[in-house]
Design goal:
ASHA1/2-like_C, alpha+beta, 164 residues, 8-stranded antiparallel sheet, SRPBCC domain-containing protein, single chain, Alpha-D-Glucose-1,6-Bisphosphate, Chain A, domain 4, START-like_dom_sf
């Protein structure tokens, strides 16, 4: 794992948006697959020791991913991601919301815009997460989103090193 790769996490309260930029030592196809294929997502999309378990996923515009983050004790926190736009290997957008185990979303969620670019074997992922309300964004941060997502992206970095 290289320590000189870009990682920044910025909270902009005026726009109710969280910005995350992260570089990976992997080609763009592999990083794209890691964000868009269930079998890879479930290997990293949860801060350890939690695990990600996808119940359904259909990566296409209008499709969705319904998954749970599962604690070692079996506690489940469900989320629903609805894909609203896909430009293969460069961008996708989704609505992300917590949900109950019956797939009923706890709205409003947040709008995620993920951009992928590659230069010299380094793939950069730029994520903006827009929230309808400042209260929702602040609650997300208070619940440990920064620490959890940072750890999760670290897991992806480790996984990609093994897959490259």
């Amino acid at each position: 794992m290289k320590n000189n790769l870009l990682f920044d996490f910025t909270v902009d309260k005026t726009t109710k948006t969280v910005y995350v930029n992260k570089e990976f030592t992997a080609d763009i196809s592999l990083v794209w697959d890691a964000f868009t294929k269930q079998e890879i997502l479930d290997q990293w999309w949860a801060p350890k020791p939690w695990a990600s378990r996808t119940k359904t996923m259909n990566f296409e515009v209008g499709g969705k991913r319904f998954y749970a983050m599962v604690s070692p004790e079996g506690e489940e926190h469900w989320s629903l991601q609805k894909y609203t736009s896909i430009s293969p290997k460069s961008n996708f957008k989704m609505l992300n919301a917590f949900a109950d185990k019956e797939e009923h979303p706890d709205l409003p969620g947040s709008d995620w815009d993920l951009n992928f670019s590659e230069k010299d074997g380094i793939t950069k992922v730029s994520i903006s997460i827009y929230n309808d309300s400042l209260d929702r964004m602040e609650k997300m941060i208070e619940m440990g989103f920064k620490e959890g997502f940072t750890a999760t992206l670290g897991s992806l970095e480790t996984l990609l090193a093994g897959l490259s």
